[in-house]
Amino acid sequence: MDKREFLKCACLGAGGCVLGLGGIDKLLAWEGGSAFAGQSDDSPGKWSTEAQFVVATSGGFQCRKCPHGCFLGPGDMGRCRNRINLRGKVYSLAYGNPCAVHIDPVEKKPLFHFLPSSHAFSIAAAGCNLRCLNCQNWEISQKSPRETENADMMPARVVDEAVGNGCASIAYTYSEPVTFYEYVFDTATIAREHHTRNIFKSSGYINEAPLRKLCRVIDAANIDLKGFEEKTYQDLNGVRLAPVLETLKVLKQEGVWLEITNLVIPTWTDKPDVIGKMTDWLYANGFADTPLHFSRFMPLYKLDQLPSTPVATLEMARDTALHSGMKYVYIGNVPGHDAENTYCPKCRTLLVERKGYSIMKNRIVAGTCSSCGTRIPGVWS
Ligand SMILES: [Zn+2]
């Protein structure tokens, strides 16, 4: 099998059977509850590894990787459908078994200020600790790695494939890399040894200790900030807002290159005053230079009855962010829109011209505006 054929075969994200989602309501209980009781007493299998950030408590094992803090009795699986308590140990079921493998332009993550025009070797394993009503990848995110068709790719092989295919980076993406943390960490560690960068595309629902450890091997992150109202976050995404804001602060403190995506969903996250509160918070907390992507919603999954986001709404969001003082504000999923481009915040020169995921022109020279010399934050080489 040649490489192209292999990658084609490994791109299994959209295939496979559809898991019944009847358990969703029950899963929206908060911290501490176990999620899937008594799943199995089988052996954890080849693609498993002992889970990190697990502690023994009087109530059983508690997973402390994410703020859910699932308690796992014998045979129980966490809300992420990834961690399972078997025979006195907690295992991650996602290690070396990605259900999606693609080569993407880095702009697709989206990362606009990180190695433009380069490619990211992109992998996902099944599972997610969120329950977004609008999930784009629910066929893989709302499943356990035991339920998806997977490739056999241990960490060293992922790095070999990335290097062999000329990718500058490896992206942990599509589903939720917090849930395949151990696989991410080991792959990213090897990638660093091969001068390949690592990209964390996440919803940012992770505890501080595992995040700080991950920051040692991650070069760039795009975090979804899915709204700015606590109740909306819980109803729309099944998690709390506050831990996501902490994640943004930690990534910045740790020096990881950060970009933020906000999906503007009609009737859910399109209120001008709430968008204004969000962008004011970002500015006040030192994120003025952090690229912010307002992304257009398309009707999907449980929100397929809604219209796609009007372009005028996205433009309102962008104007609001610029008014707050954010310097690099983009509109996503509207190919050909001016707000796909990077402009110098000082002299307004068009610096990077994009069309969808393609770069038409790049006038950034050594990280500065070629016209006035202003430093443009990012990782440019
Ligand atoms: Zn300039």
Task: Write up what this structure looks like.
This protein has 2 domains: 26-92, no CATH class; 100-340, TIM Barrel, CATH 3.20.20. The longest helix has 14 residues, at 311-324. Strands 7-8-9-10-11-12-13-14 form an 8-stranded mixed sheet. A 3-stranded antiparallel sheet has the order 1-6-5, with no helix packed on it. The protein has 10 helices and 19 strands. The chain is an alpha/beta fold. A hairpin with a 6-residue loop joins strand 15 (342-343) and strand 16 (350-355). The radius of gyration is 20 Å and the shape is globular. It has helices at 3-10, 24-27, 138-141, 155-164, 181-193, 208-214, 230-237, 242-253, 272-284, 311-324; strands at residues 49-50, 54-57, 60-63, 71-72, 83-86, 89-92, 100-105, 119-124, 169-172, 197-202, 220-224, 257-264, 292-296, 329-332, 342-343, 350-355, 358-362, 364-365, 368-369. The structure holds zinc ion. Zinc ion binds at residues 344, 346-347, 349, 369, 371-372, 374.
Summarize the SSE layout with pairings:
Layout: H1 3-10, H2 24-27, E1 49-50, E2 54-57, E3 60-63, E4 71-72, E5 83-86, E6 89-92, E7 100-105, E8 119-124, H3 138-141, H4 155-164, E9 169-172, H5 181-193, E10 197-202, H6 208-214, E11 220-224, H7 230-237, H8 242-253, E12 257-264, H9 272-284, E13 292-296, H10 311-324, E14 329-332, E15 342-343, E16 350-355, E17 358-362, E18 364-365, E19 368-369
This protein binds zinc ion.
The site of zinc ion has 8 residues, from loops.
